[in-house]
């Protein structure tokens, strides 16, 4: 019986996606650096003040802007981790292989989501399972809350 050869992307495809991922990482790091420079400039500008009466509104806007920037920074940081993990998978030859079924992830999917670790079918199945698990957890929490309410009412008699 012939031994089954492990599924692996071609070296040319791995090189192509490595260059794509490195470029995305460069763009992200550059954007983060530019954003940090802009924030320093705005901080300096805000510290100088303009003597206006709109401090309350400016303060609310600043807080909203800060929350937005922190949210974006967290998302970008998470994406940077995903990029680094994808680059590691390229180095060890597992990039482009679905971690669930072991088949090659279509190149079109990797072009759209270069950090993907699952093929579309496995990703959809995982999502369905997560939704079902979340529904079950909510049902358990609801049932437990009802049980506690019934016990509380029974104890109050």
Automatic annotation (TrEMBL):
A zinc finger (dksA C4-type) spans 98-122. InterPro entries: DnaK_N, Znf_DskA_TraR. The keyword Zinc-finger applies. It comes from the Bacteria. Residues 93-125 form the Zinc finger DksA/TraR C4-type domain. Coiled coil: none annotated. Keywords: Metal-binding, Zinc, Zinc-finger. The keyword Ribosomal protein does not apply. Residues 39-62 are annotated as: Disordered. One of its GO terms (molecular function) is zinc ion binding. Gene3D superfamilies: DksA, coiled-coil domain. This is C4-type zinc finger protein, DksA/TraR family. The lineage of its organism: Bacteria, Pseudomonadati, Fibrobacterota, Fibrobacteria, Fibrobacterales.
């Amino acid at each position: 019986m012939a031994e089954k050869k492990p599924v692996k992307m071609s070296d040319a495809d791995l090189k192509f996606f490595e260059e794509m991922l490195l470029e995305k990482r460069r763009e992200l790091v550059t954007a983060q650096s530019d954003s940090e420079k802009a924030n320093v400039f705005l901080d300096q500008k805000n510290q100088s003040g303009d003597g206006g009466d709109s401090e309350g509104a400016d303060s609310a806007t600043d807080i909203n802007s800060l929350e937005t920037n922190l949210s974006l920074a967290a998302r970008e940081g998470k994406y940077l981790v995903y990029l680094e993990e994808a680059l590691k998978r390229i180095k060890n030859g597992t990039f482009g292989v679905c971690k669930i079924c072991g088949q090659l992830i279509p190149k079109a999917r990797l072009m759209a989501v270069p950090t993907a670790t699952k093929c579309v079918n496995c990703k959809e199945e995982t999502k369905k399972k997560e939704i079902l698990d979340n529904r079950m957890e909510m049902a358990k929490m609801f049932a437990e809350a009802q049980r506690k309410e019934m016990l509380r009412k029974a104890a109050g008699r």
